[in-house]
Design a protein that fits this description.
By secondary structure, this protein is an alpha+beta fold. 54% of the residues lie in helices and 9% in strands. Strands 1, 2, 3, 4, 5, 6 and 7 form a seven-stranded antiparallel beta sheet that branches. A hairpin with an 8-residue loop joins strand 5 and strand 6.
């Protein structure tokens, strides 16, 4: 009744803490959080206990939604169309009659006649691209096709194929345009003009000295609502560095011509940048608070001498570094989206990296729920063991890689150390096993089968299972989450009236040497153990030193309550 009658005076802060908790809990919640709770409570517990709203969590959740929507928007708007158009250029300039693999990255050319037909088809489709395409294009330079030839000695020659000369060789532009759609490469005119400009393609003595032929196509794609939808830079490359054949490839690069017109995508990018900057400010504030706490600890010689570098590092969360990297990626990708003519590939790659880091960053909040954090906890506990084990078996694996290159160098899957390593890694994962057995048996007979049998039995039955056992052992240990286990141990020790040292002797808790809060063991050389570290009264309750995110482990918590008297301990143990 007294507290209820005096509730109107709570705002003045003149009543004891008990009365304020009963009469004015909102005012109690508005107080600053003590340093212990800053480090040992997660954002949701701070919200429930002190009313501090988890702004960072909801900002990161909003970033997940916005970045995912941005990636889906760009994929539906640009990427699907650009991907299909790139395959169309692949078929247009190096595919067609030469190969049925229209979606392949490269087409192998093994004869001079095939190379001449390929170059002729590329020149023909460049000048008459709208006759063989459903979409309308406009060349940046309709009169000249730039060609660059490079020889094996490093010299280069720049050439220009003129449209007028190509049409004059055909007799007339009308006849040529009419004959493009249905005629084969041998029936079309203009070959005499190409032979005149590029005679080295038809000289069998000079052709082996040719290393590269590159053609540049710059064109604009017309859209339904604008004059220019995409600006394309296409390169057709005939690479002859490898002896015996030429590899024809098409490299495409598209830029968005409609980037100047503001739409919803630009406002999404601005919202992502704004939220990223706000979240960066919150992370920087946390870093400054932790740095202030470290400075205050440094001012206490007794406390600072007892702390190790790992103790200081435990005050900082590795997720903060990931969050800063995520925001840098978000800002860079949004800046690329806001340019006048962004490159489609670069923009989508930046958005993809930003999306990956954003989804990875939201996983940090699973740490507040041990049941959802098992995957990351298992990775953290097994990372060191798996890395050491892989380093120990790497010499053996690379030995098999080099042996495969030396034994089966005629096979394309063992043509180089990189290809051999990729093939053996695929075999470990159950891919192309039967094809590889047939390939190596055709080259070296039973030796090839013996090589594969030894490799697969050693790496799958022994090494891979040992690696799995390391991860399984870490998973079994991760089932007992350290936060729950340490709290359970402290509660049990307090209930039984035992100190932490006695709990460690019974196997309930880690030994004192594993805890940075415990006193070191006595040693004849060092003399008796120093007394426990005494911090100034009120240091742990001072809210100015906090600023953590609940990431610290319970092993960094303050010492458990003092044990009961010896008589009480004896009665409890009995």
């Amino acid at each position: 009744l007294r507290c209820r009658a005096a509730a109107r005076r709570c705002a003045a802060g003149c009543w004891p803490e008990e009365c304020q908790r009963l009469c004015c809990p909102a005012r109690v919640r508005s107080h600053s959080i003590p340093i212990v709770d800053q480090y040992f409570l997660n954002p949701f517990e701070k919200w429930l206990r002190y009313g501090r709203f988890p702004w960072t969590f909801f900002i990161h959740l909003a970033l997940v939604v916005l970045v995912t929507a941005q990636a889906i928007w760009l994929f539906d708007r640009d990427v699907k169309h650009v991907s299909r158009t790139s395959r169309h250029f692949q078929h247009l300039f190096v595919g067609g009659p030469l190969s049925t693999k229209t979606s392949a990255q490269a087409v192998d050319i093994h004869s001079p006649q095939a190379l001449q037909r390929a170059v002729h088809m590329t020149v023909q489709h460049h000048f008459f691209i709208n006759n063989v395409s459903i979409v309308n294009y406009q060349m940046a330079d309709e009169n000249v096709l730039q060609v660059q030839a490079r020889w094996r000695d490093g010299t280069q020659v720049a050439l220009g194929l003129e449209r007028s000369g190509y049409l004059a060789a055909n007799g007339s532009s009308t006849a040529s345009s009419a004959s493009v759609a249905g005629a084969s490469a041998e029936q079309l005119g203009g070959e005499a003009y190409i032979r005149e400009v590029m005679p080295f393609l038809y000289d069998l003595q000079r052709l082996p000295l040719l290393a590269l032929v590159k053609m540049d196509h710059t064109l604009h794609e017309y859209g339904y609502h604008s004059l220019c939808t995409y600006r394309w830079k296409v390169q057709t490359v005939f690479d002859g560095w490898e002896a015996g054949n030429f590899k024809s490839t098409v490299m495409t690069k598209a830029s968005d011509c409609e980037g100047k017109d503001w739409e919803g995508l630009h406002y999404v990018a601005l919202a992502i940048m704004a939220l990223g900057l706000v979240s960066t400010a919150l992370i920087v504030r946390k870093l400054l608070r932790v740095a202030k706490a470290v400075v205050r600890l440094r001012a206490l010689p007794e406390a600072w001498d007892r702390l190790t570098s790992s103790d200081i590092a435990s005050l900082f969360s590795p997720w903060w570094g990931l969050t800063l990297v995520m925001h840098i990626a978000q800002v860079c990708s949004c800046c690329a989206c806001l340019t006048d003519e962004p490159d489609i590939g670069t923009r989508f790659q930046g958005v993809g990296l930003s999306c990956f880091l954003t989804w990875l960053n939201i996983s940090q909040y699973f740490e507040s729920f041990p049941g959802l954090y098992k995957a990351f906890h298992t990775l953290g506990m097994s990372f060191g063991g798996v890395l050491r084990f892989l380093l120990s078996v790497w010499p053996l694996f690379y030995g098999f890689v080099l042996l495969g290159v030396c034994l089966f160098w005629q096979s394309p899957i063992f043509a180089s150390p990189a290809k051999s390593a990729a093939s053996l890694f695929s075999l470990l994962n159950g891919d192309m096993i039967h094809d590889t057995f047939e390939e190596v048996y055709f080259i070296n007979g039973i030796v090839g089968h013996l090589y594969l049998y030894v490799f697969l039995m050693l790496f799958i039955f022994v090494i891979l299972n040992v690696n799995i056992s390391i991860v399984t052992d870490a998973y079994e240990r991760s089932k007992k989450h350290p936060q729950r286990e340490h709290l359970r141990i402290l509660r049990r020790a307090s209930a039984e009236g035992l100190s932490r040292e006695e709990a460690a002797q019974l196997g309930w808790a880690p030994s004192p040497r594993e805890s940075p809060r415990s006193s070191p063991n006595a040693s004849p050389e060092l003399g008796p153990s120093p007394p426990p570290m005494q911090l100034p009264r009120g240091f742990l309750d001072d809210p100015r030193g906090g600023g953590g995110d609940g990431h610290a482990r319970v092993s960094r918590s303050p010492s458990p309550p003092p044990p009961l008297p010896l008589q009480a301990q004896a009665s409890s143990r009995s």
